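pls design
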C-alpha cells in the first residue's frame, strides 16, 4: 500500500534494519533522507552494509524492518523494474555477444518500447557519455573506461531520476578512475539526477559528493558534506577513516561546554574542543589534522598550545613535505607542510616544538 509523507525528501530510509539470517543485523538503524538532485555517497569499510542498503533501495533485497520511500511513496512492495531506478554495478555486466547499442536497447525491448523510440533513447544515452560513435562495437572492442561509460549509459537509458552506483570504478586504474569520477559527477549535475553512490575510497567520496554517509558496523557514523566530515569529525571512527589523522591518548581532567582539559598519557595537559566526551575521568582520543600543526615558531598563532617533538622521518613528496614525529609517546605523528623556499626541511633526530590551536584539537571517544 502506498503511503505518503510530508517531508520533501526524494529518497528516504526510515529506521531500516536488515538481517539475512534472522539473527544478526547487518543494517542496524538506517535513517537517511535525500533531496532531489543530490549526489550522496555511502562510504565505509568492507562489510559495513553499503551494498545491502543499495540493494534494498533498488529492490533486490527487502528490509527486515522500517520503511524506504521514493518521492514520498513507500516502495517496500514495489518490484525492482517498477521502481524507475537506474543501476550501475561494479562488474558492468555488459552482454558480450551484443553490440553497445544492443546492450542499451535490450532493457527497453524487454519493456516493449517501439523501435524508433528505442533508437532515440539509445542515441541520447550514448551521446551523454560521449560514446555516440561506438554503438556498433562489442564490449570486448572497448577500453575499460569506455565499457564503464556504456554501463553508465545503460543506467541512464531509462531516463531514471535516481541512479544507484556500487563501486562503479573499482576495476579501473588510478588515472582513468579520476577521470571517470569527474565525468560521472558532470553528467549527474547536467541531467539533475539523484545519485546514491557506494565506494570505500574516501578520496572518491570527498571529491564527488554533495554529502557523504560514513558507514561502520551497519550504522551511519556521520552524514555531512565533505568539508565538514574532514574538518569536524564527530567521533574517532570518522576522524580515523577520513583523511590523515593524528591521535594522542589521554584522560579528560576538566570539561565545560567549550573546553576539555586532557591529560595525555605522558602527563602533559592540553586544551581541546570537547566533541565526543562527556565527563571528567573519561578516556579520550584527541584528534589533530596534520596540516593544522605548526612547527615554525614565527607562524604559531596566539593561543596555540606547544609540545616537544622529535623528528623521526622526513619525506619529500614534491608539492608537500610529510614529516613523521614522536609526540607524547606517539611515534606516528604526521605533519604536512607545503613545499616552499622558506620552509625548513626537518632532519631525523632534530628536536622541535610543535603547536596548534585548541579548537583544532578535538577530544573524541577512546575506541
Ligand atoms: N546475501 C547475503 N547473505 C548473507 N549475508 C550477506 C549477504 N550479503 C551480504 N551479507 C553480509 O552482510 C554484511 C554487509 O554486507 P554488504 O555487502 O552490505 O557490505 P559492503 O559495505 O557493501 O562491503 P564491501 O565494501 O566489501 O562491498 C556482511 O557481513 C556480509 O557478509
Ligand atoms: Mg559492497
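designed seq:
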Amino acid at each position: 500500500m502506498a503511503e505518503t509523507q510530508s517531508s520533501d525528501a526524494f529518497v528516504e530510509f526510515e529506521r531500516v534494519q536488515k538481517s539475512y539470517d534472522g539473527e544478526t543485523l547487518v543494517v542496524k538503524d538506517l535513517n537517511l533522507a535525500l533531496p532531489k538532485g543530490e549526489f550522496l555517497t555511502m562510504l565505509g569499510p568492507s562489510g559495513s552494509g553499503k551494498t545491502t542498503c543499495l540493494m534494498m533501495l533498488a529492490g533486490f533485497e527487502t528490509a527486515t524492518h522500517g520503511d524506504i520511500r521514493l518521492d514520498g511513496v513507500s516502495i517496500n512492495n514495489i518490484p525492482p523494474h517498477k521502481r524507475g531506478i537506474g543501476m550501475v554495478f561494479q562488474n558492468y555486466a555488459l552482454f558480450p555477444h551484443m553490440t553497445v547499442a544492443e546492450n542499451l536497447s535490450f532493457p527497453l525491448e524487454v519493456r516493449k518500447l517501439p523501435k524508433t523510440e528505442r533508437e532515440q533513447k539509445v542515441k541520447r544515452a550514448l551521446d551523454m557519455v560521449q560514446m555516440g560513435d561506438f554503438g556498433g562495437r562489442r564490449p570486448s572492442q572497448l577500453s575499460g573506461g569506455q565499457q564503464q561509460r556504456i554501463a553508465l549509459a545503460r543506467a541512464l537509458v531509462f531516463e531514471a531520476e535516481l541512479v544507484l552506483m556500487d563501486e562503479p570504478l573499482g576495476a579501473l586504474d588510478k588515472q582513468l578512475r579520476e577521470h571517470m569520477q569527474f565525468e560521472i559527477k558532470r553528467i549527474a549535475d547536467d541531467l539533475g539526477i539523484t545519485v546514491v553512490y557506494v565506494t570505500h575510497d574516501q578520496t572518491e567520496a570527498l571529491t564527488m559528493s554533495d554529502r557523504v554517509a560514513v558507514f561502520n558496523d551497519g550504522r551511519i557514523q556521520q552524514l555531512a558534506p565533505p568539508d565538514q566530515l574532514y574538518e569536524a569529525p564527530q567521533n574517532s571512527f570518522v576522524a580515523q577513516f577520513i583523511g590523515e589523522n593524528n591521535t594522542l591518548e589521554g584522560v579528560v581532567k576538566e570539561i565545560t561546554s567549550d573546553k576539555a582539559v586532557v591529560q595525555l598519557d605522558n602527563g602533559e595537559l592540553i586544551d581541546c574542543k570537547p566533541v565526543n566526551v562527556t565527563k571528567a575521568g573519561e578516556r579520550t582520543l584527541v584528534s589533530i589534522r596534520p596540516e593544522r600543526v605548526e612547527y615554525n615558531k614565527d607562524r604559531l598563532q596566539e593561543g596555540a598550545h606547544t609540545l616537544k617533538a622529535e623528528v623521526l622521518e622526513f619525506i619529500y613528496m614534491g608539492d608537500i613535505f610529510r614529516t613523521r614525529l614522536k609526540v607524547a609517546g606517539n611515534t606516528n605523528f604526521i605533519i604536512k607542510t607545503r613545499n616552499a623556499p622558506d620552509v625548513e626541511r626537518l632532519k631525523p633526530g632534530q628536536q622541535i616544538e610543535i603547536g596548534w590551536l585548541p579548537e583544532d584539537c578535538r577530544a573524541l571517544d577512546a575506541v
